[in-house]
């Protein structure tokens, strides 16, 4: 592989104009596709194999004409102090608002009058009007949303409190300036690392081109592939981080090759041949982790993983081709001003003139005290992981919105007026196709459910036109995300077989609350199989890279430490509220149910990046004759600074998403940022060298039979070095035999 990538790097350097033109053409083509594509709608959400999804599908089949994914809104009215919503003056304002809602847009399907629907609280202070739309929330026009927002202005002027809940006001999450700040921090880190504006600008420019192609392609295909509006957020987050990092490693290796006295084209080829091999395998680990999300069998999550994986593939290709091409355009300006004359004016530097740096000093410190460093790191991560024992999972609802939003205010008013469970009603679908008496079955079911301890009210619905299916709405006593509401869902479902025996009707429980419960359960059930699949495949991949059994095992165990510690930090901030005010967390609550499996996938891929980049340097030194301890020092001498810069950049990019107004995006940004911090600076920089120091030669042990069985992918460039030595011998140039991989 190293030899092929060496030729690819030299070819891209030599034909840099053609390569750059091809990538720019791809960017323009993707941009044109995105600009001409229809506005993406929200992705259809389904959870195959769950009762909630089965009920949802049955309802769409038995109640034709009622769009199940149509947008909804609830306009909530609260009477002025000392008055009731049934007072004539207040009632007149409410009915006027209802009339305005009906006439506000042709996208409105139905508006339920609160007085006709008996949607008033027992104390008479609160009422709500339910609004249903013909299209999904993402298909609503701005005029429709504005009409909804403006509908209660007259009532507010008359002294009523009017707030609006529901998904009709849901729009694309506003990310603000967070990503820009993250990229700006990345630029500063690159300038400090390279000491050159040109060298710092190369990773940023190439990463932005790669992300631009990826995001534009996702936008162009969003409606065709039903990718939805949230898919591009993950792709942008991952694409920016790995795009900058991969380019950083290539540029850094190129500068190291120049420091060895290589010609520019040769240095570019060798940089891609060695660091590029690490980029390929690091990218593969990320792709495996993201594509592996398909094992959860939730289409939305699978599509997000595939789209993000595609962006990572683009980042790898950009690093292998566009980066060496841009290096060719940069010329000598890729180096700090003070080093140009020395490298290009006075011949090759003397071997061995590399000076000790911070990475060298840290590695030697760890070698002197490996047990102490290992214990401190493991105990620290263990302490950070303690909050995981109190992890509560769920999906965010309007109760998790900032208290300043109208959705949260509507949620609180309804909770006060009708009870906490009113914001999370359960919908029972009664399939009476095999029942002799559908009305009798519904009555029997209603009486059974009313007697359950967690039920506040049961409201029978209307049967369908065929008379074989009906609905029953159940209002729990507790809030949607509570454990008691989850227990009620299971209690109703457990009663289903008995009801079917007595009445012949089958009862299925669905609704947003039940869907959330089933989603969380499905994520929990898939976590261990997903973890086994991803870690198992990556373990095999790392065995190919490092020709070792213990090094991949240590990498996997270290990852588990970092991801559990990161989950602990997420629980402390978003569930317990620690430091929440500093991060803009206005409302604590359960951790998003997809967070554990999502962090396992994404963080594992990113963690293996640092493992590959750092430990391949050690592997190179060990293969070329250095003792295990010295190989660790050599790996840190050449890799620690770059890996540190890469980690800081990735943390900065992920932290930029903490400024999002969307709770889910904020949580993901924080979780990934803290996970990268733990993994890069605690696991890879402390635990890895400590464990390798304790293992010594055993770290690189591989059974003979397995060594023969595994193909040699030549990540350390040994085959490339022999190839170049042979070519140099043919050309009579003995100086070309300089050490390639110790640069």
Mean pLDDT: 83
CATH overall fold name of the domain at 1-42 and 181-344 = Multidrug efflux transporter AcrB transmembrane fold
CATH architectural category of the domain at 1-42 and 181-344: Up-down Bundle
Classification by helices and strands: alpha+beta
Strand order of the largest sheet: 2-3-1-4
Ends apart, CA distance between termini = 19 Å
Number of helices: 24
Portion of residues within helices: 55-70%
Major sheet description: 4 strands, antiparallel
Form type: elongated
Rg over CA atoms? 30 Å
Uncertain residue ranges: 340-354, 731-743
Sheet-strand content, in percent, reads 5-15%
User: What is the CATH class of the domain at 1-42 and 181-344?
Assistant: Mainly Alpha
- CATH superfamily grouping of the domain at 1-42 and 181-344: Multidrug efflux transporter AcrB transmembrane domain
Q: List how many beta strands DSSP finds.
A: 10
């Amino acid at each position: 592989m190293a030899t092929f990538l060496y030729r690819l790097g030299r070819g891209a350097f030599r034909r840099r104009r053609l390569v750059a033109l091809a990538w720019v053409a791809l960017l323009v083509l993707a941009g044109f596709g995105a600009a001409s594509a229809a506005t993406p709608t929200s992705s259809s959400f389904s959870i195959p194999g769950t009762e909630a999804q089965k009920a949802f599908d049955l309802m769409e089949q038995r109640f034709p004409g009622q769009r199940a994914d149509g947008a909804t809104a609830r306009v909530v009215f609260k009477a002025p102090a000392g008055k009731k919503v049934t007072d004539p003056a207040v009632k007149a304002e409410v009915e006027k608002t209802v009339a305005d809602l009906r006439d506000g847009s042709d996208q409105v399907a139905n508006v339920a009058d609160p007085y006709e629907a008996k949607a008033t609280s027992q104390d008479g202070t609160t009422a709500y009007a339910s609004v249903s739309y013909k299209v999904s929330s993402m298909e609503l026009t701005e005029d429709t949303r504005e009409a909804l927002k403006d509908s209660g202005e007259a009532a507010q002027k008359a002294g009523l409190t009017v707030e609006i809940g529901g998904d009709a006001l849901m729009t694309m999450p506003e990310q603000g300036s967070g990503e820009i700040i993250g990229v700006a921090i990345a630029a500063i880190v690159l300038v400090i690392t390279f000491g050159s504006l040109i060298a710092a600008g190369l990773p940023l420019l190439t990463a932005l081109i790669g992300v631009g192609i990826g995001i534009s392609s996702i936008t162009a295909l969003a409606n065709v592939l039903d990718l939805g509006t949230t898919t591009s957020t993950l792709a942008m987050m991952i694409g920016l981080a790995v795009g900058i990092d991969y380019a950083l490693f290539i540029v850094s290796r190129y500068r190291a090759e120049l420091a060895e006295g290589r010609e520019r084209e040769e240095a570019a080829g060798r940089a891609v041949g060695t660091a590029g091999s690490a980029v390929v395998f690091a990218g593969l680990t990320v792709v495996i982790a993201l594509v592996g999300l398909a094992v959860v069998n939730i289409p939305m999550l699978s599509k997000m993983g595939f789209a993000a994986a595609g962006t990572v593939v683009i980042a790898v290709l950009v690093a292998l081709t566009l980066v060496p091409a841009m290096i060719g355009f940069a010329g000598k300006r890729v180096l700090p001003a003070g080093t140009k004359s020395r490298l290009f004016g006075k011949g090759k530097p003397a071997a061995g003139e590399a000076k000790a740096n911070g990475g060298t000093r840290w590695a030697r410190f760890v070698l002197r005290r490996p047990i102490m460093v290992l214990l401190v790191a493991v105990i620290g991560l263990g302490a950070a992981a303690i909050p995981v024992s109190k992890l509560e999972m769920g999906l965010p609802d309007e109760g998790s919105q900032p208290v300043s939003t109208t959705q949260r205010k509507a949620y609180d008013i309804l909770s006060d007026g009708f009870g906490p469970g009113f914001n999370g009603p359960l919908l029972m679908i009664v399939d009476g196709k095999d029942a002799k008496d559908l009305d009798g079955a519904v009555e029997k079911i209603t009486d059974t459910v009313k007697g359950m301890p967690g039920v506040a009210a049961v409201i029978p619905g209307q049967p369908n036109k065929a008379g074989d299916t009906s609905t029953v709405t159940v209002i729990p006593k507790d809030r949607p995300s509570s454990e008691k509401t989850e227990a009620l869902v299971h209690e109703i479902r457990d009663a289903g077989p008995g009801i079917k025996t007595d009445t012949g009707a089958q009862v299925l429980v669905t609704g947003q609350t039940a869907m959330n419960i089933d989603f969380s359960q499905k994520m929990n059930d898939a976590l261990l199989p997903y973890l086994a699949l991803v870690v198992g495949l990556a373990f095999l991949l790392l065995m190919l890279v490092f020709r070792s059994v213990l090094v991949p095992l240590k990498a996997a165990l270290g990852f588990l430490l970092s991801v559990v510690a990161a989950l602990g930090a997420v629980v402390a901030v978003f569930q317990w509220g620690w430091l929440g005010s500093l991060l803009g967390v206005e409302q604590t609550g359960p951790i998003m149910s997809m967070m554990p499996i999502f962090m396992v996938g994404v963080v594992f891929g990113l963690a293996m990046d640092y493992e590959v980049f750092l430990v391949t340097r050690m592997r190179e030194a060990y293969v070329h004759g250095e003792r295990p301890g010295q190989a660790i020092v050599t790996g840190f001498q050449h890799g620690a600074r770059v890996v540190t810069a890469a980690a800081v950049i990735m943390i900065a990019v992920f932290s930029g998403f903490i400024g999002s107004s969307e709770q889910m995006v904020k949580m993901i940004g924080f979780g990934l940022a803290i996970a990268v911090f733990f993994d890069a600076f605690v696991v890879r920089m402390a635990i890895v060298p400590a464990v390798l120091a304790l293992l010594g030669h055993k770290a690189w042990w591989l059974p003979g039979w397995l060594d023969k069985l595994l193909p040699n992918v030549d990540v350390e460039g040994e085959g490339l070095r022999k190839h170049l030595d042979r070519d140099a011998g043919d050309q009579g140039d003995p100086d070309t035999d300089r050490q390639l991989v110790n640069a």
